[in-house]
Amino acid sequence: RESERCKVYEPFTGAGILLVSALRQLRDALPLDWSDVQRHAFLTERLTGDEIDEFACEVAKLSLILADYPNHNGWDIGQADLFDGSRLTDRIDSDTFVLCNPPFEVFALADRQTDLAQRDLSKPVAVLQAVLDAKPAGLGFVLPAAFAVERQYLKIRQRLEEDFGTVEIVEVPDGVFNASSTAAALLIARDRRPADAERRIVLRSSEVTQRDRIPFLRAGVITRSREQVRWVPEAPSGDLWIPALQELWTYLQDHPRLDASLKMHRGVEWILDQSQTWRDTPAEGFRRGLHSARGRLQYADQPAVWLDCRPENSRFGGLGFDWSATKILLNAARISRGPWRLAASLDEAGLVASQQFIGAWPRQPMSRAELLSITALLNGPVANAFAAIFTSGKGLRLGTLGRLPLPQAWAPELPELVEGYLAELNRNEVLLRPGRLESMLVEIDAAGLRSYDLPRRLERDLLAWFEGARRPVPHPFPGWGDLTAAQGLSLSEMLEGRGARHAGNWVGQLFRPLPVEEAEDLQAWAG
Known about the structure:
Helix content is 31%, strand content 18%. By secondary structure, it is an alpha/beta fold.
């Protein structure tokens, strides 16, 4: 957009960080022959903000003064309560780009009669709705991480899809913003679509991993990005996020789902303080079970405690599930910020579990071998990537896990491999037998991936997605080996040694020179 028409407005200005960035961008686009006075006059007319806190207003002005040194003040940073009245929308017109980091909380009970609270009880949703009603030229918002996929934001995403020709969502990890430790999503929408324009939208989905947090803060480095151009249907879908490994999930979309085989429930919840719900020793009304998922590891059994199973102290019916039956137990909240989110184990001891766990019972009778196969998949790369990509926040949603695709056919050796791995784990010789458990776990993963029968490129993309991540297992796990050493091979083929021919001077081994006598005869014949 031409800089002469562009205006930038930052509601909830705070210290004016976004306005300072906008100032630098606009200033760099101005004609080189302009004087400092001309530049300053232009910028002060087009950069505005509002903030309820008087001291913050002064800090924002000072930030802009320092960024525009040696010019003096003149910045329009108003003191106003944007949650009441129409000032928020009055500041916006068709040439305005709105940059905003709104409060993330819900409206307090005393504030629910204000104008914005009538739109939605969530402050970020209410603010974004009001801004969209004002029809700005574009916007850049900091929003909760759930914005990209959660249903509560669907109507907002549909409006964005209807109004703008380009929408980008950037997922950023915990700890990016000083005032909040939670993960967030950055929304960038531009190229407002006229009513008679093509209903086409450019979508861009980007991610910043925890590993790249500092490079992102210093230089805007993005870990990975995906782009898609598609037509907007008459009724916008609101699907603005392009999930990582999208080709993989498209390939698996017709596979059976986990919830067709298992029924899943969260564990027991209590009306008591958590410290009163478990003991180290038996007591009347208490049963053996698992209370805390902290430090949980894949496949490994946890030390059991005694949980309060008296009905008068529990709520939501968790005690009514058949905890004495054989089942799979897994964590109810992510166990890391990285791609490894799940830690499952087979429970044949009839343990009760707290709400920090999910219990998964077979819908139809299953053998131990079948349950071990599902446990292996829940601990494997497909399930963990699925949980990481399609679940926002710390909690794991039962509905999302239920959509996990299962194989059409299972590798028959998978249960035996898991049995061997569990037996090795129980020998308590992890430190005495380095490498043994790691190689067994790689074999389990290979059998699990072989069950899915993935195209090799999709399997490689999946494994590469976990590069550098720490796996929650009770022994070192350096990964699946050097995936670049044998391009085009599956993990199973690498284990079978098919990649050996690629080692060293494989060209010379494959194309050996003719023996001297044969070469001389050929030369004589060719004459």
